[in-house]
Amino acid sequence: MKSIVLLIALVWIVVFLLLAALLFAPQARAADPWDKADLALAGTYLALKAVDFGQTRYIAQHPERFRECNPIIGRHPSESDVIVYFALGAVVDAAVAHFLPSKWRKIYLGARIATSLVCVANNASIGLKVAW
């Protein structure tokens, strides 16, 4: 049941982002091409998100020892909650980054790297392992 609620919430977020894009479409232009810096930032972000995914999956596999701090997926998410959350999150982040102008794309990806790095480092400091 929790997975369904999470999926519905994430679908609403995607729908909201798509509607916002349509509302501002007349003012928008084609997405800026990605340069090497954009690709490096995106690769770094995806690598950190993969580690965060593995750590969050480890939390799901060991609910007696750990609890999740992310309120969207709850204190004790199931593995399917974790998979859905990270898969949809990756799609949303990629779409947002793609349609941002090049300057803002770098800022967005840099901010996402910073927040992911804090999460991964905190998780590692409390002994979380990565579970693929």
Number of domains: 1
The fraction of residues assigned to DSSP E strands is under 5%
Question: Structural class of the secondary structure composition?
Answer: mainly alpha
Radius of gyration from CA coordinates: 16 Å
The overall average pLDDT, rounded, is 87
Give, in order, the helices and strands. HHHH
Query: If helices are DSSP runs of H or I spanning 4 or more residues, what is the number of helices?
Result: 4
Detail the poorly predicted runs.
none
Distance between the termini: 23 Å
The gross shape turns out to be flat
Explain how this protein is built.
- The structure is a single chain.
- The chain has 132 residues and is mostly helical.
- Helices cover 70% and strands 0% of the residues.
- It has helices spanning 2-23, 36-61, 79-99, 102-125.
- Helix 2 runs antiparallel to helix 3 (79-99) and helix 2 (36-61) runs parallel beside helix 4.
